[in-house]
Write a structure and sequence with these properties.
single chain, 2 domains, three-stranded antiparallel sheet, Alpha-Beta Plaits, alpha+beta
Length: 139
């Protein structure tokens, strides 16, 4: 079973799965009053408002951090996560095909949403990065 640690302020419980953490430090930089890797416990949820904690946890790129509202319980967040499952297929000699809704943040900060199906370039030759335009067929 995967190791999970829980930290609660009475209103929200933050879950941390160390095995999933990629140490991007988005949490540490996003809310340093709560996420303090040099202290024990490293998650101190009593140091910020619940809304700020939730926003920071949602920004976790690996999914190592998650949360649930104590009044609702963990089962509801599990149901919500299952509804939002996204599938990724690696196409032979082709793109990464993402099936499901995704939010994309580009390197210039621009954001867009894609629904159902998105093909991401793997060859690096697409003129429509990060999306596949079929250029891999000529490579």
């Amino acid at each position: 079973m995967e190791k999970t640690k829980e930290y609660s302020n009475g209103e929200v419980t933050v879950l941390w799965k160390p095995g999933l953490c990629i140490h991007s430090a988005k949490c540490v930089h996003g809310l340093p009053s709560v996420f303090k890797p040099k202290e024990k416990p490293w998650v101190q949820v009593e140091n910020a408002a619940t809304e700020k904690i939730i926003g920071t946890v949602k920004a976790c790129p690996s999914g190592a951090l998650s949360y649930y509202m104590n009044a609702v319980g963990p089962s509801e967040i599990d149901k919500e996560m299952k509804k939002e499952t996204t599938k990724i297929e690696v196409m032979k000699n082709g793109p990464l095909l993402v099936l499901g809704a995704v939010n994309i943040t580009h390197d210039d900060g621009r954001e867009e949403q894609k629904q159902k199906r998105t093909a991401f370039c793997r060859c690096g030759q697409s003129m429509n990065q990060p999306f596949c335009d079929g250029t891999h067929n000529q490579a």
